[in-house]
## 1
Amino acid sequence: MDWMAWTGPTAIFFAVIACLLITFTILAIRFPETPRVGVLRIETTRGDRLFITLLGSAFINLAWLGLVSAPQWGALILCLIYAAAVFRWV
Amino acid sequence: MEKTVNQKAWFLVLPVLALVAFSAVIPLMTVVNYSVQDTFGNNVFFWAGLEWFSNMLESDRMWAALGRQMVFSGIILAIEVPLGIFVALNMPKKGFWASVCLVLMALPLLIPWNVVGTIWQIFGRVDIGLLGHTLDRLGIDYNYTQDFFAAWATVIVMDVWHWTSLVALLAYAGLQSIPDAYYQAAKIDQASRWKVFRYIELPKMQGVLMIAILLRFMDSFMIYTEPFVVTGGGPGNSTTFLSIDLVKMALGQFDLGPAAAFSIMYFLVILLISWVFYTVMTNLDKREGK
């Protein structure tokens, strides 16, 4: 695995994403759900909402890095608020 | 009829998943690892944190390439989609000439990218190329290696030549699936040609057109080989699109860290736009199904 040039933070990053995917897979099997229509007027399942959350979080982090000169964990807090909003309303 | 739901079918996707993991996911993870480190070769890396991302976000070079890329994809779509529909509407519906047209339309799609680039590179040359020589004789100052407009025009015309048939073939397939009854009803109502197009043909082509737009957008957004062969990204940087710039940075300058950060942002933009297209497409299908 040396050639992949692993670092601690990136390993944690991918581990968190892997855990999220596994958790949501288990949730989808244990508690099947019907898609719902939210504020975006599109049908979404939990998995869709997770995708929207992760993709949006990436852009929030980039915007924070480019526009705000505060520490990066501020973006993480913003992402958690965004995630909660997505899972509640989208 | 309701489709039966069988989640076990997902196991059939496993081989593809394994292949994609090796060809895409693992390399992408490596790119993420590169993006937070610096290297001078020999597989020795130093932690750089988010520095490359900040550098790239402030880099005029990346924003300029992104801007050119957006303009290029926009122009490509604005020309190829209406032109493709126009060609499809005017193609013979059946018989010998329909087959001839289909074969002729499919030909450019079969030519590899680098060959298309080489064809146009020679075609546009003033000394030996038919196009370049003719334009020169007509008194038009055309030189795609030195003139900004000539370079852009060549790259755009080349892409239109290469890919309009894809849109046309998809639109043609959409048109063929419209039952005659619709046209007969329109005739009884004395609908004009424009109204037939607006209220029968266009709505029925919507699905295939979305696929055509998605494919053409993705392909033009990732374009590398054709402009690289014809203009090499020049004159200056005027036709340096995102992929060309990325390759220059990663392989030409061996700046793996900044190039990795650049790749991730490029990937995120593509992911976002593809998701939007995909969502719009599936929602249109659902609405049509109701």
Note: Chain B touches chain A at residues 7, 26, 29-30, 32-34, 36-37, 39, 43, 45, 47, 50, 53-54, 57-58, 265, 268, 271-272, 275, 279, 283, 286 (CB under 8 Å).
## 2
Amino acid sequence: MSSNLKQPLVAALRPALAALIGLSLGVALTAFAGENPWQVFMVILRGALGTPYDAGMTLFYATPLILTGLAVALPYRAGLFNIGAEGQLLMGALAVAVVGVLLPTVSAPMSLLVSVLAAFAAGALWGGIAGWLRAYRGSHEVITTIMLNFIAAGLTSWVVLALIPSQDSQNPESARISANYMLEHFSAFSSAPVTWALPLAVVTALLVWLFLRFTVRGYELKATGLSIDAARFAGINVRFMQMLAMALGGGIAGLVGIAEVCGNSSRFRLGFSPDYGFIGIPVALMARAHPLGAVASALLFAVLQKGTAELDLETTYVTRDLAAIIQAMVVLAVAAEGGFTWLKWRRAKPEVKNHA
Amino acid sequence: MSNTPYAVEMRGVTKAFGSLVANESVSFSVRTGTIFALVGENGAGKSTCMNLLYGLFQPDSGTIHIRGEQRAWRSPREAIRAGLGMVHQHFMLAGPHSGLDNIILGDEPEHKGWSFLPRWARPISRKRAIKDLDDLITKHQIAVNLDQSVDVMPVGVQQRLEILKLLYRNAGILILDEPTAVLTPHENEAFFASLHHLKEQGKTIIIITHKLREVLSHADDLAVLRAGRVVATRPTAGLTEQELAELMVGRAVQLIAEVPPAPALGPVALSCQNLSLSSRGSKPRLNNISFTMRAGEIVGIAGVEGNGQSELLELLADPRFYFGHGEGRHRLTASGNLSVLGHDVRSWSAARLRDQGVSMVPEDRHRQGLLLDQDLTQNFLLGLAQEPQFNHFGWIRAKAATRAVTEAITEFDIRPKTPSALAKGLSGGNQQKLVIARELARQPKLLICAQPTRGVDVGAIEFIHQRLLEARSRGMAVLLISSSLEEVLALSDRILVMYEGHFIGECERGVDEAHLGRLMGGGS
Amino acid sequence: MLEYLLDLAAATLRLSTPLIFAAMGGLISERSGVINIALEGKMVVGAFAAAVITLSTGSPWVGLIGGGLAGVLLAALYGVAVLPLKANQIVAGTGINMLAFGIPPFVAKILYDVTGSTPAISLAERFSVAPMFLAVLLPLVIWSFLSHTRGGLWLQFAGEHPAALAAAGVTVRRIRWASVLTAGFLAGVGGATLSIFLSSAYSRNMTSGRGFIALAALILGKWRPVPVLFACLFFGLADAVQMRLQGIQMDGFGKVPVQFIQILPYMITIVVLAGFVGRSRAPRALGNS
């Protein structure tokens, strides 16, 4: 029984340790570029947390990562792998931009509701398509979400450039959304674009946690993920659950549009996302698909994202692209973490095959 | 080579996995040119023993001797070279490939003139393989179509293919793991006939089985394993079935449960009329099935596995899925009439069926009955979460759930007695008791119960049978689907025999076992 | 008109070349049971390494091999993660893709003090047609390997029924290693053709999702070499058409939205996956290692 109590702690520590190993490996690579890895590490930390503005930027990056982390984690609990958060967040942002440009007269409190609903609905549609294809047509969600990512990229680019193009610049971006939709920046972080989108993301995480932990639907969703056959025999509508999980995940990813469009740039800028959707995968993975854990791991990845941006200026040979390498190392380390267990137990006990 | 009469000798072989000792000082000898049976209950250590012999595992201590020579394999490959061959319980055949490719795999004849290439890059000469195989087929009278892909071969043919594979490799010692589990009685006879034929050709055959009658009528010698130890090794001659059963189990066994008097029959609980299940372009899985059962009776469905029982179960679990509303990959569609407790349920989902008082114990508890990584409470909620008792406006009543599972643990004597224990940590018997406790907790009117005691220890079998009989006394209708003939005979008021997707006969309680066996094989 | 069609055919072949190499790499890997969503990443490092090596040696052939070897290196890392360490193949593949995007800027900064792209390769040092012919031959070679050689049979069993292969005395792990590394090589070569055949330098994002298109072609071609070749040619054609349509006004339609042609391959893949047009069956043991 005591081992039962210890388990969650160990479960949280192991991926954290693996992430640390991955991080160290990534930073150590800078030695090849003639840099001092420890210094690089300190630059990253200072860059991420050194001033209120830096910390604000870190929180700004954390917001979409919490959301995409959840967008991966929730379907994961239903046994599905959502690689499509990137496309889903693009659709969400597009919906916000379209609403913001085409319905400029909606006034302040309503406008927030409208934009949140639009973002969620568009993301949910995009996730829901993959969910429907999986549940009712049997198409593997990994492949369909990859494909849907590209389709979303093409579609958003077309809508933005052809239907709501920017009037005041030559940049590939949409027109400016109505000021009614914009969120105010919190003053604590000087000019960093930290807005109500951050609490929105955290509350979303909390809601997802409550849903999974305490509700009947949440239980059914988890049961579907744990054993689809057992869930089916128990009378759970597993196809609906799969679709629901993907749609909810997509909707949550869509909320990134609020943080980006209403909270920051006031328009849809093509290529605004530095792969938030893909970074959501390690965010969820490190949190073992736990919604509250995703908030913590999103913060860690945000520190990386913001901190490495300083490398361009502060070092000679290392650029912000190091972030991709470090993230990749963390992903690989966390993914392979289960294998360490396997190595240790390999000699001790083979997989006991249970017939019947 | 020495001139020992023994093809295989195990001398004091021990193998442990962590703290679990799977084989403890196992010793036995197999005479060349005989049929040897290794018998024991599930989990007695038979498979470990054979995997040691076959080189999949290495023994911790003890030695293995082949034809008098001590051998220590590092991999099955070395065992194969030394003339051993094994037919696994789950066949090692890849569906989409031809029988030929499956046979020659790992031992492919080459085209001449390519030896300058590395071994893996040399072209295969299938022509030469066919020539060799045709000789073997004639010599051993094994009928197999080599060009056919395995997917379309019946199980019996697949097994012949496996045996042919060993002969092709020139194996002198054949190990067969539970070879008859999937065969009809008719295929069974043919199978043993060919085993005897092989024996006459000088092959040594080891079969692993728990079917006592087969051992007694076909094997020359046997070894009985119980809890990892050899408890007997002797010739089969002069041994009775009862003696062998007691050797296996380690105590006197009562094979038949005490049956209480039948209650008065109630209203119709389940009725199938002309029920069929088929996919386009292939032969139907269920073919025109009709039967009716009433409250207060246990109806058993007997049959060799794979004759449509699983499909019937699936269909009963989720009729809507198969009756014209099924989409996507599942091309199986059902026709006919199906009514449960007086309702036409063809358009009903699994959830609605459960709601109306149907419970189901699925055949594969690991895959279909449990969430292995979850605790007992979560497992108890499976299928019950929607019940008002546990559902408060969409929120789970956690306390009520814990209370309910605690009660069930006491009532069904499930161990360990902690609701927070993980389901995967339970023994097969306790897992099954948990599933049955859960399904009975809803006081269903109809219980559909598949393979309720498969892989379950003897004590739990008795307990589960008792519960099913009690449920019948309370007026529940129980549909029992089981491939265990003893179980069906012991519990059922009526028995329907399924063969190739349809009912081939119906018997009352007390039917002659031999008659039932003939029906299972498609006889009349 | 004829000239236009010939021109289009040539462009199709050229644009299909990287796809064919990458898709054949994916085919080798997936037929042995290892999922390969990291084709894109291997193409990125292949393209980059090929440009760097061609620049320093002056020989595109060395560059091509070098690109392949860079893919092998990345594949080796993937192999370690998914074979002995049994990492989830999709997660690890995603990680490899991320890593691959980080490598070229990191190395380019060290080598050339620029981020992201390499200097231009002179015309004389670039390929003119050679990779195109290799690309068309490759599927035939792979087809005959799979259906006629010992290694081909083993590879297929590793993907369909690894336990049967193991029981026949062949080490599954070894087959999968070989195929993962071969896949790395081919995808790397595919990337190389981008930088030293289709263009004359490595530039940021030059793969632009071709690794994923190759994956789409693999599914569309049902994991069989010759059909996959045709799927690649089809996607190459879509790409060639798209380039020609860019900016062209069409009567009544206005400008043809390029994006729609760009997303066409992905749409088709989804439609096929959904089973509206035939079905694609993956190797049975795909993803279980």
Note: Chain B touches chain C through 29 residues (CB under 8 Å).
